Amino acid sequence: MAKNLVIPIGPQHPSLKEPACFTITLEGEKVVNAVVGTGYNHRGLEKACEARTFIQDLYIIERVCGICSHIHSTTFCQAVEELAGVEITRRAAYIRTIMAELERLHSHLLWLGIAGHEVGFDTLLMYSWRDRELVLDVLAALGGNRVNYGINTIGGVRRDVTPELIEQIRKVADIVEERNKYYIQLALSETTLAARLGGIGKLSHDDAIKFGAVGPVSRAAEVPDDIRVTDPYAAYDEVPVTAITDNHADVFGRTVVRVLEIMESVKMIRFCLDNLPEGDIVTKVPRKIPEGEVLIRTEAPRGEDAHYVRSNGTDKPDRVRVRAASEANWHGMKHMLEGDYLADVPIIIAAIDPCYSCTDRAIILDNHDTGEQSVTDWRSLREYSINWYKVRGIDTSKIKIAYSPLIF
Amino acid sequence: MVALFNILVFPGFIFLGVYALLFEFLDRRIYARLQNRMGPPWFQPLADFLKLIGKEAVIPAEADKKVFPALPIFALAAVTTAFLYVPIWSGNSLLPFSGDLIVVLYLLTIPTLTFFLAGWYSTSVYATVGSMRALTQLFSYEVPLFMALLAPALLADSWSISGISQFYAAHPLYILINIPAFVVAIVSCQGKLERVPFDMPEAETEIVSGTFVEYSGRFYAVFRMAIDAELVVVAAIIAAIFLPFFTANPVVGFILFVVKTIIILFILAVFRSVMARIRIEQMVKFCWKYLVPLAIIQIIVNILLKGVLPL
User: Fold this and answer.
1) Less packed terminus of chain B by CB within 10 Å, N or C?
2) pLDDT score, position B246
3) Do A343 and B280 touch (CB under 8 A)?
């Protein structure tokens, strides 16, 4: 082929679970250029947080991500507690840790299944999602919901762990550990899987640091970057944590890191259950949070999650900034995709365990010096989108949109 | 009248259609059970087929208006014709003649070519990539598959499927000689049928569904039918050549045919469920590095044995 083929992966594509557009330029089957286009899922969560009280924000923050919802609310709670100068009880910290590790189990099992699906290995998807179901049941028993558990509150947790629940968690931990031994063996020794995952999506040690990769992506490149170890929060200062690293620096390495982390999480859950301290689960926090700003980092299943909260002394935050783990990992994506085959694009994208809607932000910088302000209305946003697509060879100006009189 | 019945009803069009749907059901069911799922009910393939028939069939604005709808019919016709030369209820097929093995193999190449053309004429980028892959794949599995099926023919000294079948039925121990060829045939027919690990031309998660991305409604239904029928025909050929057990009684012979083809299907379904899709360049390497030499060795062995063994 004389001309290079340009293939859009997305915004609607079976391998993407949320909309994003990857414009892939091919030479034969090899990727020579990749453009990562996110931004289809902007939800205005940060702005919404500013209009609500801290307690109300908790419900918004919990919905930043559908999978690592607990870690986001933990981070936000920690930030507010830090501002208010409140220390949560040890029991609450342990329950948060148990939740976080259960969430890691469910997230990593989910990822394993998706990775299998992306390389056409649907049996792995069915198996690992079957086991994930057990973890979800336990999470539902603990928090009340399968996905957005709602167990966190500012100043502690809302639900206590009963002895029966402890037994149930232990049982599930045993089953998951047993099954995961099989997945480890499978990931390390299955020939077609190793052939598909090995050597693709390379992000070396130096590149991982350069692009600021976090979580399993950087740990697979031997960067021992795990907030649970480097900057312990909740009960991680007492729970023995080992940061799993690997030297493959490719998709295979990320798989190895994740399956081994499941084992590590099971151990941590057992430790927490054995050493669960007695006491209250919630500390009273005033409604009005003192003035100040704080940045809190935690380790989500996908990597480092950072929340910035600024308070102006009222019961509403002045600014909330959520930096989800995927946002840090997008930067290396172009580097990872280029030079690999088209067939590897979906699995390389999936290997960072991307979460699109956590990432998408709309930022307009006002001119600080002149104090100039601007208002962007619906019609100008539409014009912007038409121009955006025109540059990329798609004419959307003919599509009729029913303008609501309420908007204008 | 009898010929018409044979072509249209049994063992021709209608029987093949029904058996193909049954095969799709069994394939999906076995696949599902191996994955710890329930799987579809028995009528699901038929329901899918009828639903697709009833749906609107869209021809893309830039596609060729004549070739685009004709391609599925070509695929189905080629597969149905090939089925007439495969023995079903006894050692003889409906219309055996010397050299029908070659004819069947070439008829079975036609569906792959129509997949390529289907992708090419759809003019979608995904379909184009899919059709390039279909063609690349054709060059890698076709040679080992042909050689694996010709090796037993050399030993049997017959170029007709029925002839080969009858030869091995008369000398059942010689089947064991062809085990390497059987393995090669099973692996490379996964490529022919575009199933995991060789389903790159469709590869849902990479290029949506490759060559068929623009096909919808009845055109797609016919394509699906052709793919299912191809599965039956390939399983039947492999069963006839490598598992040539049959009896004089046509009813018992037919039941044996069903059992044999289902055994082949089971092997194919297990393959599909325990493997990941490999890359196209990995497949080309694998086919030419391992399958072709194995098939060549089989052919050499069979030629040598032909001079040695009492036939």
Assistant:
1) N
2) 67
3) yes
Q: How many CB pairs under 8 A join A and B?
A: 83
Q: How many CA atoms lie within 13 A of B309 on its CB side?
A: 15
Q: How many CB atoms lie within 10 A of CB B307?
A: 7
CA separation for the pair B231, A6 (Å, rounded): 34
Q: pLDDT tens-digit profile of A309-354?
A: 998 888 889 888 888 888 888 888 888 888 888 888 888 888 888 8
**Sequence-separated (6 or more) residues with CB below 8 Å from residue A394:** none
Q: Write the pLDDT tens digit of every residue in B117-141.
A: 888 888 788 888 888 888 888 888 8
Which amino acid is located at A283 in the chain?
A: T
Closest residue to A123, CB basis, from B199, B205, B273: B273
Q: What would the CATH number be for the domain defined by A45-328?
A: 1.10.645.10
The answer to whether the Cβ–Cβ distance between A341 and B196 falls below 8 Å is no
Side by side, the strands of the sheet bearing A317-323 are A292-300, A303-311, A317-323
- CA distance, residue B20 to nearest chain A CA (Å): 23
Domain range list for chain A: 45-328
Confidence of residue A405 (pLDDT cuts 50, 70, 90): low
Is the pLDDT at B31 greater than 50, yes or no?
yes
- Asked if A196 and B278 count as a contact pair (C-beta separation under 8 A), the reply is yes
Classify residue A247 as left (phi > 0), alpha (psi -120 to 50) or beta. alpha
Cα A309 from Cα A288, distance rounded (Å): 14
Average pLDDT, chain A: 85
User: For A216-247, how does the pLDDT look when each residue is reduced to its tens digit (9 = 90+)?
Assistant: 888 888 888 888 888 888 888 888 888 888 88
Q: Is the peptide bond before B244 cis (omega within 30 degrees of 0)?
A: no
SS3 for A133-182 is HHHHHHHHHHHCCCCCCCCEECCEECCCCCHHHHHHHHHHHHHHHHHHHH
Q: Is residue A406 pLDDT above 70, yes or no?
A: no
Q: Quick one: which H or E segment has residue A8?
A: strand A5-9
Task: Give the separation between CA A101 and CA B126, rounded to whole angstroms.
Answer: 40
Cα angle B255-B256-B258, degrees, rounded to a multiple of 5: 65
Residue entry with tokens 């991307």: A354
CA angle, residues B105, B107, B109, in degrees to nearest 5: 75
